[in-house]
Amino acid sequence: MPGYELFGAEERKEVNDVLETGIMMRYGFDGPRKGIWKAKELEQAICDKLDVKYTQLTSSGTTALSTAMAALGIGAGDEIIMPTFTFVASFESVFSVGATPVLVDVDDTLTLDPKAVEAAITPQTKAVMPVHMCGSMADLDALKAICDKHQLILLEDACQSFGGSYKGKALGTIGHAGTFSFDFVKTITCAEGGAIVTNDQDVYVKSDAYADHGHDHLGVDRGADQHPFMGYNYRISELHAAVGLAQIRKLDNILSILRNNKKIMKDALATVSEVTFRRLPDEAGDSATHLSFFLPDENTARAAAAAMKAAGLAAFFWFDNNWHYIRQWDHFKQNASLHAFPPGLKQAMEQYKTKQFPASDAIIGRCISTPVNLGWNQDEVKEKAEKLVKAVKSVL
Ligand SMILES: *Cc1c(COP(=O)(O)O)cnc(C)c1O
């Protein structure tokens, strides 16, 4: 999964360009920066790579989500429908704009079940946010049809799936906006960083200002900028953007290694008749960062994950994890926040103390994901695949 495995001379060169001028901020200092604009260059590279009109970089995937929501006009009183299986950041960012997350079941795509989405729509629903987990995608045609029918915003949390696509279009570019994370364990990394992509100029212009204290960036210099509305400092630095620039140039190579390695592991595991695989709405668009599969029941899955770990393989049994699946999110269930949630939100959250998600449990309770690495040579991949099959068979 992580681009950090391919960190090298290219990243150092880009960072050095910045260190030589000493201008580490992405805005202003036009003279001394000597034509070095790494953040701008990376934004353009993302637009070109994903075939999308606008990209706004931010300091993280979390701030990209907050910024996108603000720019899309999502705020207090609005409900955002999102999956029970996600990363806490997706949930937290909804709070950051004062909106209410409405969790609904996932299906065997490991993200939003379209039927559950439709059932959860209320007059307060403003947006649907699929989370393209573990490198692969939601059933976007079905979700888009629901959003179009009910006039809802489709916001793709594609933080884990940079480089993936759906029916020929880059993930993140199919909804009204999409977000990416370039934190240290994502497909490509800036150390810390994020991006919003959109084809909507209004969303872009608002994102650009919101992530920089509301600066419109139209002044002859920073001091002459206007501030049409309030924002925050969610800026990326030039140093971080420089790393990302070297990384995005490696993306095609990263994806081809991941896809090759994943295929070897998946083909091996497919020989075990009790194992089934995550449904991929467009297999060709899988960014292949993880291999996700199902065992017949929860106990077998938990045991298989333990056997994999004992064999030296990475295994995520999400059902027991307190970052990714609602079951163990006690801090959210207790409304454990440093600042008071808006009163309406607190009330809306009460339901999660007791609310059960049997349909999600039936999926996540049987699911294991194992990350695909870039650094393995062909012998190592085969060895991992053999160990995987052996570990899984040992509990059946
Ligand atoms: C990583 C991630 C985020 C947040 O990204 P950061 O850059 O770590 O803030 C949001 N959503 C999902 C699904 C993620 O995996």
TrEMBL record:
EC code: 2.6.1.-
Stored InterPro entries: DegT/StrS_aminotransferase, PyrdxlP-dep_Trfase, PyrdxlP-dep_Trfase_major, PyrdxlP-dep_Trfase_small
Keyword entries, A-Z: Aminotransferase, Pyridoxal phosphate, Transferase
Gene Ontology terms for molecular function: transaminase activity
A Pfam family hit: DegT_DnrJ_EryC1
Domain of life of the source: Bacteria
Family: Belongs to the DegT/DnrJ/EryC1 family.
Name of the molecule in the record: DegT/DnrJ/EryC1/StrS family aminotransferase
Record organism: Chitinophaga defluvii
Origin organism lineage: Bacteria, Pseudomonadati, Bacteroidota, Chitinophagia, Chitinophagales
